[in-house]
Amino acid sequence: MVRAYAATRPGGALTQTEVALAPLGDDDVEVVVEHCGICHSDLSMLRNDWGSTTYPLVPGHEVIGTVVARGAHVDALRVGQRVGVGWYSRSCMHCRDCLGGDQHLCAEAQSIIVGRHGGFAERLRVHWAWATPLPDGLDPSTAGPLFCGGITVFNPLVMTQQCPTGRVGVIGIGGLGHLAVQFAAAWGCEVVAFTSSLDKTEEIRNLGAHRVVDSRDPGALRHMARSLDLIISTVNVPLPWDHYLAALRPNGRLHLVGAVLEPIPTPAFALIGGQKAITGSPLGSPATVMDMLEFAARHHIAPVVERYPMSEVNRALAHLESGQARYRILLDADF
């Protein structure tokens, strides 16, 4: 049994309790949690917005910790090694997607907080392939959000084979978007940030954006017509999608990483005329996570975080839900 913070009903407060860990499998590692980020997905799971929550729920999927035990078949990691763990806890490792390097697309992929206990706890257990060693140059005390927010916005640059001469737009400069701006700028792209919070303009420019556009101004959006190769949307609310599609150059992509729950109305000719596409992606494969971490270390990319002790997790969640967090919230384990 380990101590953890769990909710027993949708939207309920988290209280400290004891939970049983799944047995340590031959391909698993056990990790002592040192730090864990809070993601908006944790709020969605707490409220059962997606219909996949089981209670009691221990959230947390942006974990930094140290390996303290490993299964009989684990040679890739050593006891005492510091690792990060994100949304996924395991995949089958034998299907076509896994064998092709797309383990995050495995039909049997399991989340760390769906049907099991996450990182708001003393310890957790995951398949070794989803526990990624931290490279030198990354601060382990702030790296946790890279394992969800970071890989979520880094993967689109990889999968679209974005050129460093390209122009990339980012919609929503929050927990995901502030990392997307940093990655795209370090990639070499010209970066346009779309935000409804113009009071953040100086901060956004300091993150690497070359231009900041008021997303509430239809005229400003129309002025962006045929100017962007890729737009990464990090928001989970409906938008004037026709303006953003019009902002794409021919062969451009509007790429969704924010979980908009309403259908996106799209006239066929908005795509056909310019050979445009609307795409999306979940986080990324273990190999892409490793590339992302090395890229972040090389270019000194880090989440901007606000810190709370894990014992104040309910206050931290309330701050996140208020929309005032800048830009990720991090819990420091204090059991």
Summarize the structure.
The chain is α/β, with parallel strands linked by helices.
Descriptive notes:
- With 335 residues, this protein is an alpha/beta fold.
- The chain has 2 domains: 2-147 and 284-332, Medium-chain alcohol dehydrogenases, catalytic domain (Quinone Oxidoreductase, Chain A, domain 1, Alpha-Beta Complex), CATH 3.90.180; 150-280, NAD(P)-binding Rossmann-like Domain (Rossmann fold), CATH 3.40.50.
- The protein contains 10 helices and 17 strands.
- The chain has helices spanning 40-47, 96-99, 149-159, 177-187, 201-207, 218-222, 241-246, 268-272, 286-299, 313-321; strands spanning 2-6, 15-19, 28-38, 63-70, 82-85, 88-90, 110-111, 123-127, 131-133, 167-171, 190-195, 211-214, 228-233, 248-256, 277-280, 305-309, 328-332.
- Strands 3, 4, 5, 8, 9, 16 and 17 form a 7-stranded mixed beta sheet that branches. A 6-stranded parallel beta sheet has the order 12-11-10-13-14-15. It has a two-stranded antiparallel sheet with strand order 1-2.
- A hairpin with an 8-residue loop joins strand 1 (2-6) and strand 2.
- Helix 3 (149-159) packs across helix 4.
- The longest helix has 14 residues, at 286-299.
- The model has no long low-confidence stretch (mean pLDDT 96).
List keywords for this structure.
2 domains, 17 strands, Quinone Oxidoreductase, Chain A, domain 1, Rossmann fold, 335 residues, 7-stranded mixed β-sheet, alpha/beta, 10 helices
